[in-house]
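USER:
Working in pairs, take the chain set out below, taking as long as you need, and write a paragraph about the fold.
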Amino acid sequence: TSWLDHKGVYEDYRKAIVGLYADNIRGCKQEDVLKASQIVVPFFKDRTYIFANQLIEKLKKSNYNIIAISGSPQEIVEEYNKYLKFDAVFGAVYEIDKNGIYTGEALFEPPKDKGQVARQYIAENNLTLAGSYGVGDTESDAKVLEMVENPIAFNPNYNLKKIAAEKNWRIVVEKKDVIYEINS
């Protein structure tokens, strides 16, 4: 898409990828998708960011409840969580028929309202937002970042950077092995 050539906006790219996934998952067996996840995720599991790793470790040591809300398929998100060990993860859920075959219909799409997903999780688990952190990289994360006490726009796309600057949120960019904070 044009976003890969530094034209257009990331959200259009993300929507195109989600559409391609939905189109191409149709007719696939769930067991094959799960097997593919088990092969692909271990290959990429260590390709993480220093800043994110340090923040996660700090929050785990302080007994924070850590969740991830992603537009990626639930099968991939759950496989990653075998390594991340978050308290809960939420990804896109696609319909599976009685024969274990994907229909291509999205049943649950977290990016449409990540804030609602977070609010529901908080309510169901009797949690509080006191001292809370949120990290996001696109405008689909803005509703969660608005809720927390410590919002961080991490490697934000243009739209989230603009929102973060307007709201005076912390903006952190990591490039190679250097972490930058941008004053908005």
Summary: The mean pLDDT is 93. The chain has one domain: 2-182. The domain at 2-182 is CATH 3.40.50.1000 (Rossmann fold). Strands lie at 67-73, 88-96, 102-108, 133-136, 150-154, 170-175, 178-182.
